[in-house]
Amino acid sequence: MGGWRFLLDENIDPKTATYLKKEGIHSEHVRDALWQGADDEADVLPYAREHQLITVTSDVKDFGGLPPDAHAGIVLLYDDTMPAYQVAAGLINMVDTYPTRDAFGGREEIDPWI
Fold first, then answer.
1. Which of 35, 33, 27 is nearest to 75 (CA)?
2. What is the pTM of this model?
3. 44 lies in which domain range?
C-alpha cells in the first residue's frame, strides 16, 4: 500500500483516519494537520499538494470541478451520511484494486467502492 497518502477534509469523520492507519495507510485529518475551519483554497489544497496527499472530501461543490494541477489527487464522497468504517472500507478497496497510486489517475468517487 506504499505511496497512498490521504488528507481527510474536515467533513469526513476523523475516525476514518484511525481505521486507515490500522491498515498501514498514511492518513491525516485536516483538524489535526491544519486546524478546524481551514480554508480549502488557501490552506487545505496547498498542504495536500506539498505533502503529496490525496484529499478525501464530501465537499463536492468546492472540490469536484478542480483542474488536475490544483491538487495531488481528489476522492469525492457523495453520501456524507456514510459512517467512518464504511468510508475507510471504500478507500481500502480502492487502494487494493489499483496496482499503484499512479494508476489511480488523480480523481475518484468513493461511493461505488463501498
1. 27
2. 0.90
3. 5-113
